[in-house]
Structure formats: structure tokens, C-alpha cells
Amino acid sequence: MTLRLLRFIPRCAVVILLVLLGLLLVGAVYPFIGTKGRALLNRTWSRCLMRISGVRVLVRGTPRMREAVLLVGNHVSWIDIFVINAVRPTAFVAKSEIRRWPVVGWLVAGAGTLFIQRGQRHAVQTVGAAMQRRFSQGEAVGLFPEGTTTEGYDLLPFHASLFEPARQAGVTIQPLALRFMRNGKRDHYASFTGDESLVANLWRVLGERGLAVEAVFLPPLAQTDPDGTPVSRLELSRRAREGIRSHLL
Questions:
Q1: Do residues 201 and 76 touch, judged by C-beta distance below 8 A?
Q2: Per-residue pLDDT tens for 36-53?
């Protein structure tokens, strides 16, 4: 307990300072530096956050680093978005409730998150149009099609609707599997699931050592069959889920 506290206190203090710096950058710097400048700051900030939090980021495979891409991954924790941003700056699709979270909501909104109003009739069309605008600028968009978090050993069913904007735009769709580790072995210790509070999860993560996340980037999905037939969004969703799941089991 004493060692955990000794790790937690300095890490927590630096994380708070980093979040305050992030808010300052979002409010005072982001509006003036353009897409490339914001991307550089997002990646640098995310790498710093993971390092301060004691989470190693291990990249496997070949991430798509240029041009527009839809990154499709499994969802385990709040850590996920920063792991991916540490590799390539990415605008994530997130539930609108997050926007109302104190501090965190302001931070992710300012960093370019695309919020979806679940339950509203035209929510998918609205966020789909926002995704296509990002694609037209050559940006990466991130999607967690499960819609919620798991412990990271298997996958829930995928929601296929937000595969459609990438399919219509002919944008590369790249699945990735996030494998959470502790002391070199698969472990769900850092997962953020159920009714656990963010504070409780931070206490665990910031007080622990030996945490790592493997980001396994899989080959992009083929969007046409060998006979030239376009692949449907449901089939793209199925293939993405199958590829990710094969690296989690």
C-alpha cells in the first residue's frame, strides 16, 4: 500500500499539471496552429500522458501513418484513445455524454472528438458527415464499434453503421487490437468497465507498475471482392471484428 501511494501521488500530480497544460493548449494555441500543428501536439501530449501514467505503448504491425483512415479497435479503457493518439493523432467518435464531463469533456472536445447523440434519429448521419469532412482533410478517425468497454479478452457485437462513411468515401479501414498487459502477461487490471468510477480506475493505474498496451495494427480491409463487388458495411464490420478477435483470444 505504501509503495502504491508513493507511485500514485507524484504521477497524479504530474497528470493534473499535464491536463491543465492541455486545457491551455486547446483554448489558447489550437485555434491558431492548423491541423498539422494540432496533430503534433496531440501525439506529443498523449505520449507524455502514457509515460507519466506508467503505461508502455508497444506497436505491432504497420499503422497507416499518412492519408485518411478509419481506425477500428476494441475498447477496454480510457487509455485506448491516448495509446492510439501516441501512434497517430486520431479524432475519435464518442458518446455525447462525455462532452459534459468536467475537465475531460472540455479537453477531448477541444482536441477534435466527434460526438454522437445516441438515440436521436439523425445522429448517425450527422456524425457520418463530420467523419467525411475529416477524411477529406486526410485525417484519421477512430471508432470503437462495440459501443462500450470490456476486459479485453473478447469482443461484443459491432455496430456497423459508422463503417459506411469510410466505405462511401473509399477511405482505408484498418482494424487494430489493443492487448492490455501487466508484467509481460495479458491482464485486465487496467480495464475500465462496469460501474467503476474514473477516480477508482486512476488510483489503480497510477499506483501500479509494469503496465503496457500492445497496439496490434492489422492489414487494411479489402473493400471490394475479387470479382469487383463492393463489400457491404455489415461485411466490413464482420471482417474487422473477426480480425481483431483473432488477436485477443
A1: no
A2: 999 999 999 999 999 999
